[in-house]
Specification:
Two copies of one chain form a homodimer. Chain A has 459 residues and is an alpha+beta fold. The first copy, chain A, has 13 helices and 18 strands. Chain A has a six-stranded mixed sheet, sandwiched between helices. A four-stranded antiparallel sheet of chain A has the order 11-13-9-14, with helices on one face.
């Protein structure tokens, strides 16, 4: 074990305290009520990078939330890695389902619980600590390192591409290492080489201009919840397949390499459904079918629905409006704009008379992505994971969306490798999000090794 | 004008202050968060009845919220009127749509705005002030008066029938006058002689045992919002007619007297739809069709729907549960239990595999009601209204539910006349509920006259 690795493990408690402090900041990017937390988290991260030894640290303003940039050039001739991550987090709702408060990080059973700890503050803090350890032990980094940490990943990164375009020269690098993403399963190391795209929509149906008494007006006034459920209820068939006309237009046949990975995964559907506490639906015959649906088919999910009275007890009201939040995952060939148009057409065609509907796309969305399979750095990342985790990692796709791969390729002309130590079962986006401290320890060693190897001429 | 009427109008400002004080108390019965307000409102009313001169005033406990009882027997041989009303109010949501706060009653343009001012605190305060005026001016009431004011009307009166059964002897009377109910239109005096029944349900669909990331799990995990909208979306046809099997079983043909009232009403559908800010749907051809739907047809309305993330921005979640609040208005022949069973069967038959559904009936519900058309007191009430409002009132039905008529008939064997000065356009159950001060003044005079006439042997 190298001096850097020794240093990292000897200082693990300090690293955990840093992570707790980072997670106490409620940096929810989607909700304006939390914008103080966004600023605070950006400042915290900038300060931590400075303390780690980065001579250049800047908060880069965007049209939305700021990004944090840091740079340490060891040698202009050495390779340059740009570390990507995000300091924003998902909303903590529903608050009453957290065993300990979302923004009071707590350790139980070698796990640390708190909003954002797995997605992405824990995985992001790892390369910061690794860089610091190199500077403390060897006095220098193995190669040139830049950081670019955004604050809008959970909001669909609306200003990320403009940020890359604006700062193209300063961000120049040979490779992006993403601290965001997720290991696929705790018992099986994996690297993510493909992800679905994404588009998010907000649908609002309006009926009467004000809330009405449902006894007095029931039978004559038009209830927007009724219109909404009728329109949304016609978007899937009885088995949950999307039946919106035009939704899959342009979708390409699946990549044979991902089909091969599905075959190799030997995924067990029954175990999966037990883990999410839900009976297995009939159409999902086995693990192969399950992964095909998660990786290779587009989705249309209702993330939220809202209308009328939702408090305890009842209220006899016909509300003025009802709304739903929809997000879709896209496969190769689908575009956010075309999917939004198909959904809007579906809704408008089914809108009963007497109602109005608005369909708003939230953020630019992103197309599906896959990485160059022959990238040498990918093989190096796989080798490090294989050494530390005892078996060669599987190349997997991801149902979730990491739009940054495509963005870095487009603006900086480099590939991005997802090298995150978050695991997909860590309830990110749900109550009781956690991060395994074992992953934290492994991640520190893995990043230390990978940076060292990427510095070698073989790369 | 009698001395009593003079007294009432001379003291109108004090009456308005009393009403404001009553309306400042947030006595929302459906939401446990407001239970302090319930107790406070019951105590306020009991105190006000004592100050009015009632020697016997008691807070009667029930299994839920208490009722307030008062009694003043002028002469055991004189007729006895029991005044009914309720001191509880609807929830104030959505709070942000109120021009002035829901529990800070405010006068604008000869109207007083506040939650509960029209339903039912204003109309209920009128007979209290009238009784006080008789005692202050004549030293006695024209007849025996009892009050029974409940605190659960907006919760479906779950403990009202047991209350009547328990206190049957103390509540004995010759006639009930209800201060609850509503005049039908501000420009046309009316008495309500029939109302639809009601039943309220809460439907919850459960999918996975916890919230899941919709990117990671989308395509494999079952989304309960999808199941809910599919099941609810199949409860009405495209024109809004209820198509739940068995829903209308047992419904009797409409009462010809109510059909005659609809013919007499000359109701204008276009004016109605302008007043609620909604275009007229095609199936509602005219005012006759509109009133037929409001008075003579059952409804199934979604009062609330809730699931997943509802805050600002988005959250890529597949929620664990989704739920809806449903209430139905029933016509003669339908029973709450049968309607609940029909809805539960509809939902269970359509529940996709992989989900669970629970259907909970909230409160006992009530059947439709109509009053004896030959009741002499009804003619006297109509005569008073005719004198004060300039034209003979129309006998109308009510889309909303007043279950107390049937309850008084069943337990006390008396009829109830709705003698309320609330008007149906006063946005009760909606933001910016108001009560016309002109109705307050007219109501005081009308109650003074009606009590006087009911004391006469002609009755």
């Amino acid at each position: 074990m190298s001096a850097v690795e020794d240093y990292l493990l000897a200082h693990i408690e300090e690293g955990i305290e840093d992570l707790k402090a980072f997670c106490r900041i409620p940096s929810v990017s989607t909700d304006p009520a939390f914008h103080g937390g966004i600023r605070e988290a950006a400042a915290f991260l900038a300060d931590r990078l400075r303390r780690a030894g980065f001579p250049t640290v800047e908060v880069l303003e965007t049209a939305g939330h700021p990004a944090v940039f840091a740079e340490l050039i060891r040698d202009p001739a050495a390779p340059t890695v740009l570390v990507y991550g995000h300091y924003d987090v998902q909303p903590p709702d529903p608050l009453d389902k957290w065993l300990t408060p979302a923004f009071e990080p707590t350790i139980r059973d070698d796990r640390i619980y708190g909003r954002g700890v797995s997605d992405d503050k824990g995985p992001l803090l790892i390369p910061v600590l690794v860089a610091e350890a190199y500077l403390k032990t060897e006095g220098r980094l193995p190669l040139n390192i830049k950081f670019l940490v955004e604050g809008e990943e959970e909001s669909g990164s609306p200003n990320f591409e403009p940020l890359l375009a604006t700062h193209r020269d300063r961000l120049a690098c040979d490779l992006v290492l993403s601290a965001d993403g997720a290991m696929w399963r705790p018992d099986l190391p994996s690297v993510t080489v493909a992800s679905r795209g994404q588009v998010a929509l907000e649908v609002t149906v309006t009926g009467p201009s004000k809330d009405l008494h449902s006894g007095r007006h029931g039978g004559s006034a038009q209830n927007p919840i009724r219109a909404l459920v009728q329109m949304l209820g016609a978007m899937h068939d009885a088995e949950g397949r999307v039946i919106v006309a035009g939704f899959k237009d342009g979708a390409k046949p699946p990549d044979p390499r991902i089909i091969a990975a599905i075959e190799a995964a030997q995924f067990d559907a029954e175990t999966y459904y037990r883990s999410i506490g839900s009976p297995k639906p009939d159409p999902i015959t086995d693990g192969r079918e399950l992964l095909t649906r998660q990786w290779l088919e587009p989705t249309l999910e209702f993330n939220g629905i809202s209308g009328g009275y939702q408090g305890a007890g009842g209220k006899t009201v016909i509300p003025s409006t009802a709304s739903a939040k929809i997000s879709c995952r896209l496969v190769a060939g689908q575009t956010p704009a075309e999917v939004t148009a198909a959904i809007a057409s579906h809704l408008e065609a089914r809108l009963p008379k007497g109602f109005a509907v608005s369909v708003m796309q939230r953020g630019p969305g992103s197309q599906a992505f896959f990485i160059d399979p022959d990238l040498p750095a990918l093989a190096q990342a796989e080798a490090v994971l294989g050494e530390l985790l005892g078996q060669k990692p599987l190349r997997v796709a991801m149902g979730a969306t990491i739009p940054i791969g495509a963005a870095f390729r487009k603006h900086l002309e480099v590939e991005a490798i997802f090298f995150s130590f978050s695991t997909a079962d860590e309830d990110y986006h749900a109550p009781n999000e956690f991060f395994r401290l074992s992953s934290f320890r492994t991640g520190l060693v893995a990043w230390a090794r990978l940076l060292d190897r990427l510095a070698k001429p073989a790369h």
